[in-house]
Design brief:
Number of domains: 3
Number of strands: 16
Radius of gyration: 27 Å
Distance between the termini: 59 Å
Largest sheet: 9 strands, mixed
CATH architecture of the largest domain: Distorted Sandwich
Shape: globular
Bound molecules: zinc ion
């Protein structure tokens, strides 16, 4: 039983027993009307019965007309360094326009650290800095940016074609590539690393984020299931998840990102040259 309902029942019992101290009536909300009658000891018996029925009725339909409007579901996210409405929205699966609207923000570009942003529908606070890239850079990496050696990154799926490329997508940005594959296909770590996030998010569905040496991070999303937990050390090509269609996606596919120093890069530049099993990204 919710505390508020317990409170109403207790009020009802007090009214019946004549314990009602008039001075406290207002604190109980709907029962505040009782104050008009003064101390409960003076309330006639039949009026008490009416009041009790009324109080119990309010308790039985707390979310309908009789009760005060409950606070909208969601939570307040505290803005951290480097975050903006766009990134916060991406992490929580809410558009930045919607966040600006519900928070009455005229200047959505200028948040301050510590500012509290209401996120409708959110159930728990999320590490926005881990989940989302700070920005995206479309250019091919310079010679010094590519990690040395062959096969530093491998394709996360043994086969499949790129169905959606890296780059602008409507008024948003696709920070990775989508690789189409049947549901249940195993997803493999692109490189040795440590799992820093493994959970479900509204937009990404089941998502795994792996941190690698050299400031690199890889992101894998829309899984039917994640097979690794946060904190787990994984080896390159180790199975970490299965392809699915959770989150916002049009069909079964793997959403895959590579970030360097939390900037999203086009993964195809970092992966081995496509073979027959990986059709060429149409953007390159
Ligand atoms: Zn995607």
């Amino acid at each position: 039983m919710a505390p508020a309902e317990f409170g109403r029942l207790e009020v009802a019992v007090r009214v019946v027993r004549g314990w009602w101290p008039a001075g406290q009536a207002q604190a109980w909300g709907p029962a505040g009307r009782a104050q008009a009658w003064g101390p409960a000891g003076q309330v006639p018996g039949w009026w008490r019965a009416v009041l009790v029925i009324g109080l119990l009725a309010v308790g039985g339909c707390a979310s309908t007309v009789s009760a005060p409007t409950p606070p909208r579901q969601g939570l307040h996210h505290e803005v951290r360094s480097g975050e903006n409405l766009y990134r916060i929205g991406k992490a929580y699966g809410v558009s930045h326009q919607e966040l600006a609207r519900v928070n009455g923000l005229a200047d959505a570009d200028h948040l301050f650290v510590g500012q509290r942003i209401f996120v409708p529908g959110a159930a728990r606070a999320l590490p926005v800095g881990v989940i989302t890239a700070e920005r995206a850079v479309p250019d091919a990496p310079g010679a010094g940016e590519l990690p040395r050696g062959e096969g530093v990154f491998v394709w996360p799926l043994a086969r499949g074609s790129v169905t959606s490329r890296f780059g602008p997508r409507g008024n948003s940005h696709h920070d990775g590539i989508d690789i189409g594959a049947p549901i249940g296909t195993v997803v493999r770590a692109a490189r040795d690393g440590t799992v820093v996030y493994s959970d479900v998010l509204r937009g990404y569905g089941n998502v795994v984020i792996i941190e690698h040496v050299g400031g690199f991070v890889t992101v894998y999303a829309h899984h039917s299931e994640n097979l690794v937990r946060e904190g787990r050390r994984v080896r390159q090509s180790e199975v970490i998840a299965r392809v699915g269609r959770t989150g916002r996606t049009t069909g079964p596919n793997l959403h895959f990102e590579i970030r360097k120093d939390n900037v999203a890069r086009n993964p195809v530049y970092f992966l081995p040259t496509e073979t027959a099993t990986h059709e060429k990204d149409p953007s390159t």
